[in-house]
Structure formats: C-alpha cells, structure tokens
Amino acid sequence: MAELATRPDEAIAALVSPQGRRDPYPHYEAIRAHGNLVRVDDGMLVAVGYDECVAALREPLLRVQDENSHDVVHPGWREHSSLRGFTESMLYTNPPDHSRMRRQVVGTFTARRVQELRPAVVRLVDRLLGRMADLGGGGAPVDFMAEFAFRLPVAVIGELLGVPESDQVWFRAVSAEVTLALEGITDLSRLDRADAAMDELSDYFADVIERRRRRPGTDLISALVRAHDDGADGDRLSRDELIGNLVLLLVAGFDTTTHLLGHGLHTAFEHPGFAARLRAEPGFAPGFVEETLRCEPPVQATSRWAAEDVDLMGTPVPAGTKVLVLLAAANRDPRRYPDPHRCDPDRPDNRPLSFGGGIHLCVGAALARMEAQVALPALLRRFPGLAPAGPAVYRDRWLVRGHSRLPVALG
Ligand code: HEM
C-alpha cells in the first residue's frame, strides 16, 4: 500500500491520485488526524467530522459555488458549456433563485409520490432480472453495472421525465462525459468532452421541450415546460434554467443510484450473512441500504463558499474561503459512529450524510432508497447462487465513487 501523507494538503491531493481514487478511506483518516475542521495551506477549510459537516451544510452564509464565485476563482469558465449548463441548475444556485427552481420539482419526489412509484419499480426490476437471466443463463458472466445497476435508475428517471427507453443507453455514455464537469474544476482545458456532452444533452432536451409544448403529457418535463411558459413571474424558469435542471435531474438521478446498487451488491458479496438476510427478512433492506450509503456514499463530498465572514463552530471563516465538506469522512466519524469502519446494518439512529443536508438536501433521496430497497432483495432472491465472476473494477473517479464493472455469475 502507498504511504499515507502526513500533511493535510498532501492528504487532500492524495484523494484524487490513482491510489486515492481506488481507496480514499485511509486518506480521510490522515486528514482527520489533524482535527474535525482542518485548514489547509491555500486557506481552504475541510470539514471532516459529522457535526462540522452538518453545520457547514446548514450555514446560510456558506453558499454553493455559483456564477459569482466562478467569476472570481475560474475566470474563463463561461467559455465552457458544461459549466454554464450546470451553473443554471439548482445545485449551483443560491437563494432566492435556488428556492424558485427547487419548488418546481420537489413535488415529484415526495415520500408519497415515491411510494406510488413503487409498483412500477417492482415491474422494472422484474423485467431487468429476466433480461439478466437470459444473458447469464448458460453460465456466462454478466456485468451487473451495465446490465442492471445502470438500467434500473435510468429507466425510472426516464419514466419520470417521459423520455423513451430507446434513448436510455445513450444517456449512460453522454452522462459519463458531462459529469466530468462535476468532479471539481481543476483544469478548465480538460473540459472538452464534458462540453461536447453538455451540448448534445442541451440539444436533446431542447427538442423534447418543443415536443412537450406541442403535446403536453403528465411527465415532469411537461410540468416544467408549463412552469416556464405560464408560471407567475416569481416562479418562472428561464429556458437555460429549464435545460440545466433537466440535465441535472438526469445525471443526478441515475449516476449516483447506479453506484448505490453496485456498492450494495458488493457489500452483500463481502458479507454473505447480509445477503442471506436480504433474501429472507423483508424488513432488513432499509437498514442495509442505509449502512451501504454510510460506508460507501456514491457522492463522497461537496463544497461551499463563504459569501461573508462567518463563524463555523467557533472557527472563523473569512469571506471567500472554500469549504470542502467530506461527506464520506463524516459518515465514519468515530464520535458519531462507534467502530465506524465496520459495516453493521443494525446500527441504531443511522443518519448518514450521503444525501447532503440543508437547503440542497438531495431531492431524489427517497426515490434512490426505494429503488435499492426493492432491487437488492429481489436480485438475491431471484438468483440464490449469485456470486462474483471476476474482480470488481472501480471507476477512475473520486467524487462520484462506484464500480465500472461488477461481473457476476448467476449460479
Ligand atoms: C444514491 C443516490 C443519490 C445520492 C448519493 C445523491 C446525493 C446527492 C447529494 C450529496 C446532493 C447535495 C449536493 C450538495 O449539497 O452540494 C444531492 C443533490 C441533488 N440530488 Fe441527489 N443523490 C442521489 C440520487 C438522486 C436522484 C434519484 C435524484 C433525482 C431523481 C437526485 C437529484 C438531486 C438534485 C436535483 C439535487 C440538487 C438539490 C438542490 O440543489 O437543491 N439525486 N444529491
């Protein structure tokens, strides 16, 4: 194993090294050794502890990076359509615009609406398991990521948005490119592929929007188009905001959930006792999914920006400071979780920060949880002899962590 950095700024840099991308967890501990709120050499503050991350996410003066902060930190960012596109979405917008955008979509993802979607998810899971059975029936290995973990969430978000199934495989390729722009901007010159993907997605959604305008349906895009065309002035979404939020919903809606499914299956393989309980105990799945989210959060971190001088749990944060919020490290804070590296689905009061917190708390949290709670037990029950059929391969990303391949034999 590579030697661990001792200085916090070196440990931060190590997170995005090839070794850190494979296994970031020892590096979080190297940072934690310096405290729960750590200042690094360039002035950035790193929230490592659970309470510190919660406080950072809830502090109104710590804002998401938006066009104002980009102008200061990344002059030239406007030449990149990927950054322009995401900056029009709620994830990179602060109040009051953030509240206006978020209002338009939250209704689609309430706990009640998600429960109404459950039967459709059960049917989709069943269909995809049938497809896996066809592919792997003769003993051939099947890549769980490509054949299931990606297909389920993309089909669910596709159904909500009302985009046809025939476009969904294309989404995987194009989303993999566009999300390069979400990995934290380090070098603007490396965004060519993300820009091209954003251009393709923008053209695609512009076309869908026109079709919905002519023939509205009951899907989310039709509702957003109505809000764009007829909304009261204070509610209206601009055309760019509409497209930016659709791209966000698409990639936020499946890239992350795909990896929750991958981490869930990987965890079940590593703990056969959990796999057995997922098969046998209907009430076990929610705790298992929550613990998977805690130990392997698909989104490892987020960041904020101090709009004014602010005090964060007694630490002064001067205006202009970037705050890196290490969600994955918070989830393993020994003050919050005894024996934090042990996977224990029976943990009481398990509230990982994997969906963030504060006003940007993930819109799709209930949906993602429901998909995993339905899919993982159904998969393990359908294939009682399911087993790894080769090494699990992690994708080469730090921020959105997951597998690129997870080959399985159906048994
Ligand atoms: C396991 C799956 C998922 C994980 C781990 C995840 C994680 C996150 C996190 C950490 C944030 C907050 C980012 C921040 O504060 O900077 C977020 C925001 C968001 N997520 Fe998710 N997400 C998941 C699934 C979904 C799904 C299924 C959807 C939609 C269908 C979705 C839509 C969104 C949106 C729109 C936001 C922005 C909310 C805002 O800015 O107000 N996510 N997600």
Automatic annotation (TrEMBL):
Record has Cell inner membrane as a keyword: no
CDD domains xref list: CYP164-like
InterPro entries: Cyt_P450, Cyt_P450_B, Cyt_P450_CS, Cyt_P450_sf
UniProtKB keywords: Heme, Iron, Metal-binding, Monooxygenase, Oxidoreductase
Keyword Oxidoreductase: yes
Stored PANTHER family: CYTOCHROME P450 YJIB-RELATED (PTHR46696:SF1), P450, PUTATIVE (EUROFUNG)-RELATED (PTHR46696)
Name of the protein: Cytochrome P450
Organism: Actinomadura miaoliensis
